[in-house]
Amino acid sequence: MDVIYTDNNATTRVADEVIQEMMPFLGEFYGNPSSMYTFGDRVGKKVRTARRQVAELINADPDEIIFMSCGTESDNAAVNAALEAFPEKKHLITSVVEHPAIKNLFSYLEDKKGYEVTFVPVDSKGRLDTQVLYDAMSDNTAMISLMWANNETGVIFPIAEIAQKAREKGILFHTDAVQAAGKVEIDVKKTGVDMLSLSGHKIHAPKGIAALYVKKGFKFPAFLIGGHQEGGRRGGTENTASIIGLGKACELARQNLGMMGTQVREMRDYLESRLLEEIPGTSVNGEREHRLPNTLSIGFDAVEGESILMLLDRKGICASSGSACTSGSLDPSHVLVAMEVPFKSAHGTIRFSLSHYNTKQEMDVIVDTLIPAIEKLRQMSPFWKDGKMV
Amino acid sequence: MWDYTDKVKEHFLNPKNVGELKDANGVGETGSLNCGDALKLFLKVNENDRIVDASFMTFGCASAVASSSALTEIIKGMTLDEAAKLTNDDISDYLGGLPKEKMHCSVMGQAALKKAIADYKGIQILEKPGEMVCECFDVTDLEIIDAVKTNGLETTEDVTNYLKAGGGCGKCLDRIEEVIASVNATEEK
Question: Which end is more exposed in chain A, N or C (fewer Cβ atoms within 10 Å of the end residue's Cβ)?
Answer without folding.
Answer: N
